[in-house]
């Protein structure tokens, strides 16, 4: 029957090539690469039959120096299959990337899901950014639509490398974000190399290498098809909103079985539900009245499009009964098309063909029409089952790449071994010294002397990030257990360059661990580089602790660890740079203008939030152990972040109430219960934080040996004033008049509770946080007396602190402060020793 049609001399098939397809109708397609990422989430999410992994999983590498995991309430997300994905997003403040290791080369779908919502100070609806791969710009100047509905952008990319890096670049002051990502292999023959161009008429070669962006995918005359019902997780819209209702049509549905044929379309090209529904021209008795059925789409002007027509003759009762014309814009793409002529010898054969159009309509419209054939003696008929419109040449502009950390071989165990030997020897020396001074004690200096002799694998929340065993074990991806930001190994040369060869001019701080340099990475990111001093007693253990802890912690009020370097015996930690330095620096000993009371309380609230997160954010609480004003850093907006986790310890197991450990910490801030009984609980941090609160209100050092004896220790001295209800007498004179009495009273009570003799009597960090918020509220609910500038003019009287000369005290790290031991008790000296030696 098929050959019979050949005898018909009428058919002038013009520009209609029979694509030779290697169709198979075998088992369901299984993609080699199938990455489904639920960004900004800590949990996997099921969407239909698929599971989207949290982006802290091991399967992808997230490289970001500044990212926030954001979430919103499910009921603020429009109901859809994907709603659960749109509940969370990852927000980036700097260029950042996701890297996917590709198992297969060739065509892949890359789908990016965006849903904008408000999170804290971020309004995602105003985000403006660029997304690129190593080879193509996928989105430029992109701002999600403001109608608060999700958008999915789909790309079809021929991936020729072993790694796909998707880079998100915020533009201007803006941020970038992403809710979910899909990267899925598709059959190689989904897009073939050749197509027919209609304007001008020519054969177009080179489709195979091109990237495409899907603009429209329509199940003509049928229902919406969701990802779960599609063979390649595509979604197909109905044609309702595109069909120009200018002529009489009917929708048809085929109940029979489709006849997939080798050489025609496959089940992967479009699902059955596309081929077994169609829109059909209703035959007119009067030839003159026949007209085209037309669909119209908005597209970008002056771009090229690959238009794929999905066709399947599900209406004819016999072969060679259906003839029609196909148009794209006003160009003819096929004349007198006869589907049965394709030689398959049967009806209901799924078939597609590609047409390429260089769009020229200045209004940015693209239309597709099916019209009746002008042949005599044939019915006025026509059919269309499905349509895909894919933009070509999507890549304009330059791509940006944030490379993932290179994987490197490590020879760590040996290097660390030697460092550890030094540490152990020093530890023994300290131990002897301590034992001599404190005979009645059996200090558990285990934490310094029990240095493990090998670099054992570290596991944080189930993700091991440093591996060993053999010298050549390559580094596994270092990802966090909470919000999934990668912390990675940074080559020494990079840091050398960034710090101008560790230029002394770049030093922003010195601590027991070593020097801290300001550095600028090649991409302009400012970072703080903390370079371990090899002789330091804050040795390998603290180095490890800090990497281990910080890389797992991502919180708005905790300083993020960006990377580390352990090449050439180095112990270097790289942190986000905190523009405004330490809280301490803003309180006393510098020319920095005094912070207002409101600002001070806000900073304390921020720090309290960070500590509260440490204490409660994990199954095992994390005790900071060195809370002090020098460890509370301020970013450019004076937002507080807690830093320096070198001494951190995870809290007690459930069946214990405290961690026994050698006393460490900073003198003046130490919980008396802790150094008396070596009993470490999260309440030790609460005590130290109480001392910080005093520093904040009195603006003087916690230990000031130049003062009269009873005034040396801030905690002791100020507590006496507070107990007498006279805290107002010792408030920083620069702000004293601006504090509302109720606010001050509440603050004083909070401090007093924090400094309670026994841990059990102290509030939790959560209570402290709540109380500070109340302090702020009490301050703000009254008349505005926070204008510090005017207050500064009034209070020219020298403050008590000034009279006693505390401003002359150096603000160097405590370990460098010259302290007069003769004025101290044995306990004090012990803690001081631990402070200078331990840090
Ligand atoms: C960045 O933000 C500041 C203040 O919000 C504004 O003045 C400036 O114009 C912004 N710059 C850009 C490039 O958007
Ligand atoms: C991808 O592009 C390369 C050329 O860059 C080509 O050789 C290969 O066939 C393409 N693969 C597919 C699946 O189109
Ligand atoms: C999609 O699949 C579901 C069940 O898997 C079915 O109930 C539904 O009718 C399908 N929709 C289409 C358009 O095929
Ligand atoms: C086309 O128009 C007719 C009559 O105005 C209406 O009944 C029909 O629903 C329309 N069809 C579409 C697809 O809009
Ligand atoms: C077309 O003509 C046939 C008979 O010639 C008639 O039965 C039919 O109703 C007509 N159809 C329309 C749509 O006018
Ligand atoms: C269908 O559209 C094409 C292109 O716009 C036009 O040339 C043709 O005359 C139309 N056919 C009918 C029957 O209106
Ligand atoms: C699209 O890109 C191809 C090569 O990738 C190029 O030959 C062609 O001219 C481009 N077309 C347009 C309209 O830019």
From TrEMBL:
GO MF term set: ATP binding; protein kinase activity; protein serine/threonine kinase activity
Subcellular location: Membrane
SUPFAM superfamilies named in the record: Protein kinase-like (PK-like)
Location, primary (coarse class): membrane
Mode of membrane association: Single-pass membrane protein
Record-annotated membrane-spanning stretches: 412-435
UniProt keyword Glycoprotein present: yes
Pfam families named among the record's database cross-references: Malectin_like, PK_Tyr_Ser-Thr
Keyword annotations: ATP-binding, Glycoprotein, Kinase, Membrane, Nucleotide-binding, Serine/threonine-protein kinase, Signal, Transferase, Transmembrane, Transmembrane helix
Domain Protein kinase stretches: 502-775
Domain of life: Eukaryota
GO cellular component, one term: plasma membrane
InterPro entries with a match to the protein in the record: Kinase-like_dom_sf, Malectin-like_Carb-bd_dom, Prot_kinase_dom, Protein_kinase_ATP_BS, Ser-Thr/Tyr_kinase_cat_dom, Ser/Thr_kinase_AS
CDD domains, sorted: STKc_IRAK
Signal peptide bounds: 1-27
Binding site for ATP: 530
Name of the protein: Protein kinase domain-containing protein
Organism field: Brachypodium distachyon (Purple false brome)
């Amino acid at each position: 029957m098929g050959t019979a049609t050949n005898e018909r001399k009428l058919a002038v098939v013009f520009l209609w090539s029979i694509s030779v397809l290697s169709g198979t109708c075998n088992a369901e397609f299984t993609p080699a690469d199938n990455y489904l990422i639920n960004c900004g989430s800590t949990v996997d999410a099921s969407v239909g039959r698929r599971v989207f992994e949290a982006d802290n999983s091991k399967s992808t590498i997230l490289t970001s120096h500044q990212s926030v995991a954001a979430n919103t309430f499910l009921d603020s997300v429009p109901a859809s299959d994907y709603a659960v994905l749109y509940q969370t997003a990852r927000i980036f403040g700097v260029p950042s990337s996701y890297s996917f290791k590709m198992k297969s080369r060739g065509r892949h779908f890359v789908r990016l899901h965006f849903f904008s919502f408000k999170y804290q100070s971020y309004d995602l609806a105003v985000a403006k950014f660029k997304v690129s791969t190593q080879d193509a710009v996928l989105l430029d100047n992109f701002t999600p639509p403001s109608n608060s509905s999700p958008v999915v952008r789909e790309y079809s990319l021929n991936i020729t490398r072993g790694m796909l890096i998707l880079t998100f670049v915020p533009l201007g002051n803006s941020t970038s974000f992403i809710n979910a990502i899909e990267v899925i292999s598709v059959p190689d023959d989904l897009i073939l190399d050749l197509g027919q161009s209609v304007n001008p008429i020519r054969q177009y070669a080179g489709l195979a290498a091109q990237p495409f962006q899907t603009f429209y995918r329509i199940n003509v005359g049928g229902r919406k098809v969701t990802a779960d019902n599609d063979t390649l997780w595509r979604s197909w819209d109905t044609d309702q909103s595109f069909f120009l209702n200018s002529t009489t049509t009917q929708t048809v549905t085929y109940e029979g079985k489709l006849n997939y044929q080798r050489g025609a379309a496959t089940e992967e090209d479009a699902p059955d539900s596309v081929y077994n529904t169609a829109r059909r021209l209703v035959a007119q008795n009067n030839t003159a009245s026949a007209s085209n059925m037309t669909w119209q789409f908005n597209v970008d002007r002056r771009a090229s499009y690959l238009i794929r027509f999905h066709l399947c003759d599900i209406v004819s009762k016999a072969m060679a009964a259906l003839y029609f014309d196909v148009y794209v814009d006003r160009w003819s793409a096929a004349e007198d098309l006869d589907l049965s002529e394709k030689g398959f010898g049967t009806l209901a054969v799924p078939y597609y063909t590609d047409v390429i159009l260089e769009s020229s309509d200045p209004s940015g419209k693209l239309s597709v029409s099916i019209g009746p054939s002008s042949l005599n003696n044939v019915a006025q008929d026509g059919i269309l089952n499905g349509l895909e419109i894919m933009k070509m040449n999507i890549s304009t502009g330059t791509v940006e790449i944030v490379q993932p950390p290179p994987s490197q071989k490590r020879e760590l165990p040996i290097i660390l071994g030697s460092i550890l030997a030094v540490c152990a020897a020093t530890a023994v020396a300290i131990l002897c010294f301590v034992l001599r001074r404190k005979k009645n004690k059996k200090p558990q200096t285990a934490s310094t002397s029990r240095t493990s002799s090998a670099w054992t694998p570290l596991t944080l929340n189930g993700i091991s990030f440093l591996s060993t065993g053999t010298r050549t074990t390559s580094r596994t991806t270092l990802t966090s257990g909470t919000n999934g930001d990668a912390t990675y190994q940074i080559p020494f040369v990079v840091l050398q360059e960034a710090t101008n060869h560790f230029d002394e001019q770049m030093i922003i701080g010195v601590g027991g661990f070593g020097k801290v340099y300001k550095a600028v990475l090649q991409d302009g990111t400012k970072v703080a580089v903390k370079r371990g001093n090899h002789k330091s007693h804050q040795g390998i253990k603290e180095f490890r602790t800090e990497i281990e802890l910080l890389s797992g912690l991502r919180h708005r009020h905790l300083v993020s660890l960006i990377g580390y370097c352990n090449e050439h015996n180095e112990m270097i930690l790289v942190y986000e740079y905190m523009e405004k330095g330490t809280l301490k620096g803003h309180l006393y000993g510098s020319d920095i203008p005094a912070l207002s009371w409101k600002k001070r309380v806000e900073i304390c609230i921020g720090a309290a939030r960070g500590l509260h997160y440490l204490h409660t954010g994990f199954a095992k609480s994390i005790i900071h152990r060195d809370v002090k004003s020098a460890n509370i850093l301020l970013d450019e907006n004076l937002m507080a972040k807690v830093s320096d986790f070198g001494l951190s310890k995870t809290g007690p197991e459930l069946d214990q109430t405290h961690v026994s450990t050698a006393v460490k910490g900073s003198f003046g801030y130490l919980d008396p219960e802790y150094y008396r009984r070596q009993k470490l609980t999260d309440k030790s941090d609460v005590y130290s934080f109480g001392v910080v609160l005093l520093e904040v209100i009195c603006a003087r050092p916690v230990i000031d040996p130049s003062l009269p004896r009873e005034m040396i220790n801030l905690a002791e001295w100020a507590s006496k004033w507070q107990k007498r209800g006279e805290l107002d007498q010792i408030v920083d004179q620069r702000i004293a008049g601006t504090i509302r009495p109720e606010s001050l009273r509440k603050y004083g009570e909070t401090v007093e509770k924090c400094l309670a003799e026994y841990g059990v009597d102290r509030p939790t960090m959560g209570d402290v946080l709540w109380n500070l918020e109340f302090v702020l509220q009490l301050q703000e609910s009254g008349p505005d007396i926070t204008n510090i500038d005017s207050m500064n003019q009034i209070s020219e009287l020298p403050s008590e602190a000034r009279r006693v000369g505390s401003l002359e005290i150096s603000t160097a790290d405590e370990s460098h402060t010259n302290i007069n031991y003769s004025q101290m008790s044995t306990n004090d000296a012990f803690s001081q020793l631990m402070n200078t030696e331990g840090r």
